[in-house]
Amino acid sequence: QKYVYAFSEGRADMKSLLGGKGANLAEMTNIGLPVPPGFTITTEACKEFYIAGRKFPEGLEQELETKVDWLEQTLNKKFGDPNGPLLVSVRSGAVISMPGMMDTVLNLGLNDQTVIGLATSSGNARWAYDCYRRFIQMFGNVVLDIEHHKFEGILEEQKHKRNVQFDNQLTSEDWQEVIGKYKAIVQKETGREFPQDPKEQLHKAIFAVFNSWENDRAIVYRKIHKISDDLGTAVNVQAMVFGNMGDDCGTGVAFTRNPSTGEKLLYGEFLTNAQGEDVVAGIRTPQPIAKLADEMPDVYQQFARTCTLLENHYKDMQDIEFTIERNKLWMLQTRNGKRTAQAAIRIAVEMVEEGIIDKEMAINRVDPNQLDQLLHRRIDPNAKLEVVAKGLPASPGSASGAVVFNADLAEKLNKQGQKVILVGTETTPDDIHGMVAAQGILTSRGGMTSHAAVVARGMGKPCVCGCEAIRIDSENKQFFVGNITVKNGDIVSIDGSTGDVILGEVPMIEPDLSAEFLKLLQWADNIRTLEVRANADTPEDAAKAREFGAQGIGLTRTEHMFMALDRLPIVQEMILANDIEERAAALAKLLPMQEGDFYGILKAMEGLPVCIRLLDPPLHEFLPNAEELAVEITQLKLTNGEPAKIQQKEDLLRKVRSLSEFNPMLGHRGCRLGITWPEVYAMQARAIFQATARLVKEDCKIDPEVEIPLVIELKELAYLRKLVEDVAEEVKKETGVDFHYSVGTMIEIPRAALLADEIASQAEFFSFGTNDLTQTTLGFSRDDAEGKFMQPYIEKKILNDNPFIVLDRKGVGKLMQWTVENARRVKPDLLIGICGEHGGEPSSVEFCHMIGLNYVSCSPYRVPIARLAAAQAAV
Ligand code: ADP
Ligand code: MG
Ligand code: MG
Fold first, then answer.
1. In CATH, which of 1.20.80.30, 3.40.640.10, 3.40.50.300, 1.20.1640.10 is domain 49-57+68-87+96-236?
2. Residue 610: phi, psi to the nearest 5?
3. For residues 184 and 172, what is the distance between their CA atoms, to the nearest angstrom?
4. Is 835 in the active site?
5. Per-residue pLDDT tens over the stretch 301-343
6. Would 250-336 and 528-618+661-874 be classified into the same CATH topology?
């Protein structure tokens, strides 16, 4: 077993063994880019480390020894040699990048002797001591577990004493003083002197990086991003290069294209005379990368060329770390850059146009889940806004919410259903849970590559950072801007596309799709075979769905129409009717209203199929609540209310109680209503057909699909189908108009799925109602599951995902597959779709494609997501 690979021995496709960072360092080395030499300890070694109970696996020590010898020879330097000390960085490198989650130590190899050697041989004592104090600080924090602020405090003190603002203004003597104090802290906290032996330092640092795989923030990050806990991290040991030797040095990070908008322009930040994390940590405000062209034109040219080369090599936008040591460029990291949805689309489309990738690859490049960001409402650009401050537009989108200054509180309020904006000077990896809970993030410090910005973009959350106009007083939970004080709980809005910070709520407008987005969707449409419909209950929703590219309506629910305020009393009349005549009278009043509803929707979807589901929910949903009624009656009695009125309420209460069910979800609902009260379904069918006849007369092409819900048995469907057909014949005769329609059923109870072949004989279409099918297959009532036991099921990994969000392929999926196969055996061209919420969830869409459905149907706003997901399933 080989545990250690020199960079020259690796390749980009060895990510799972070498980690992302190690594999790409190897790749860059092998394409001849200037990468400081080094080697990678494999993720296998890390896994073995944990299996052995946090011990180095056998053989690792020897291999390390050999590789360190090799590195010493290559560089002609030696660990611990004051005349030419080898200094290295020890860098974590997970398989899937987890920015900022794990640990890195720089300048390892320094000690009291080598620092003197370094100072004398370089003639740059300030630099040598700066490196040493950084090393003690990082090693102290990462390896010895000493809190960061203990070191920061000393640094701040020293700056204060010297009356300077920035680290780089401190002198060699200052650093020596700081080092003395740092070492004292180490002594005090660990009871030991700071380790002086470089090999011991290396050993401990590697140990710490392995350990950091299991630190809390890494665990949380993996949970949020659904990264497996078993992957382990690699460790990279790499010769140091120095960006902090003077003004002809620097360090920076850059994206080959703008990660926020996708614009093709080198985008990033650098700092002269700085090392490592200085840029991202917001120590000094960095300069935009374009400035490098003025300050070091040759280096900039070389860097720009390297960026293009890397982009073409990886065929994707790169996120790059580099350091300049005395005018020489060194590449320290490259990876595919994280980006917003907007940027992902633009980059994918433009890379096709530039000939770098093909259309299929472009389609696969955009994560459909991410598109959600673009399909949301945003701040109305014409609104008059009270913009109180402007920061950096770090992650697009807008959000409103109550100000909170603390991640725990953000999480707590969010759980209670409050929308919050997390505000802070900056964020750290310990704030992740608060960022997840917040609608948006606002920081007063830090640049476009600060922690807040990077993480927010990754999560697709609006973020405004580096908003220096606001002054945060976290002690008293408030911030000041100009002469305004904003307190904990006050509502603010942020616009992450402009950097605006606004007091109060703001008016929002509907999203519009960019030209690139439309182009990408067009390509997707040409590739996919699965059709995409929308679920819509109103003409407005239907129009929106059409605009987003829906090819029909997969589900129109009629119950919402019954809920409207002016209808509810009539619906109640119908339900409470004592006999058929009374019910008929109520239905007669509802008929023209329903006809109007269907007319509107059918017209909005002219030329496309519209699937209308007959009444489905249990009747009690339309009735007043029994407890409230009882209270009302008591009140009436206590206040000597009219006896007739009391009588009426008591009758009502009796009726409500008699209709109450132990388990409404499994009760008197769906086609069971149609069986017991055929006149209700007959009225609905009549409304559909009368609307159809009118529209056909108006020369519209109309294609209604009448859908019977909750069927379990062929005879149910046969009975109701006959009823619908009889009404259709009547309407045809009465109006003299001939029209086309079809009758089908939902498949949402396991029995219906199992008897698919029989039921298919009476149906022209099937539509999987996967919300109910999931409930009835798992025996989980959705509301109870999500409120009470879903979370533990997922945390304990009993279920991988919430089956109400991601289709349960193993169970529900098996029933669906059975249904499709058996139904199509009887009726090869049976139309089959899905109208549960899964119809807009990318992995479920993929499954629907795999089992050969004709269409998925989802909410109008998810139609573009489904179009892309369906194309991804097809390529
Ligand atoms: P992260 O994954 O958190 O970015 P890195 O391992 O990339 O951690 O390192 C942190 C910082 O230190 C980065 O800015 C990186 O460029 C810098 N760095 C790492 N190794 C070296 C090295 N050998 N020489 C100079 N700078 C380095
Ligand atoms: Mg890095
Ligand atoms: Mg249902």
1. 1.20.80.30
2. -130, 120
3. 19
4. yes
5. 999 999 999 999 999 999 999 999 999 999 999 999 999 889 9
6. no
> What pLDDT is recorded for position 578?
85
**Distant-in-sequence, close-in-space partners of 166: CB < 8 Å, separation ≥ 6:** 159, 283, 284
Cα separation, 681 vs 677, whole angstroms: 7
Top-confidence residue, 785 or 847: 847
Q: Which fold has domain 528-618+661-874?
A: TIM Barrel (3.20.20)
Q: Taking a C-beta distance cutoff of 8 angstroms, is the pair 672, 748 a contact? A: no
pLDDT in tens, 672-691: 999 999 999 999 999 999 99
Residues at CB less than 6 angstroms from ligand 1:
36, 89, 91, 100, 104, 106, 238-241, 276-277, 321, 323, 332-333
Indicate the average pLDDT of the chain. Answer: 92
Non-local (6+) Cβ contacts of 200 within 8 A are none
Q: Domain residues of the chain, as ranges?
A: 49-57+68-87+96-236, 250-336, 377-509, 528-618+661-874
Split at pLDDT 50, 70, 90, the class of 525 is: very high
Q: 460 falls in which pLDDT band (50, 70, 90)? A: low
Per-residue pLDDT tens for 194-208?
999 999 999 999 999
ipTM (interface pTM): 0.97
- Domain 377-509 in CATH: superfamily? Phosphohistidine domain (3.50.30.10)
**Token reading at 644:** 């007739």
Q: Please give the model's pTM, rounded to 2 decimal places.
A: 0.83
Residues 6 or more apart from 223 whose CB is under 8 A from it? none
Interval 507-520: pLDDT, tens: 887 788 899 999 99
Q: Which of 25, 96, 106 to mutate to test the pocket of ligand 1 (most atoms within 8 A of CB)?
A: 106
Q: Are 834 and 861 in contact (CB under 8 A)?
A: no
Q: Which two tokens stand for residue 715?
A: 């005879």
Retrieve residue 499's tokens: 């950097």
In ligand 1, the atom with minimum distance to the C-alpha of 91 is 6
Could you please state the CATH topology (level 3) that the domain comprising 250-336 is classified under: D-amino Acid Aminotransferase; Chain A, domain 1 (3.30.470)
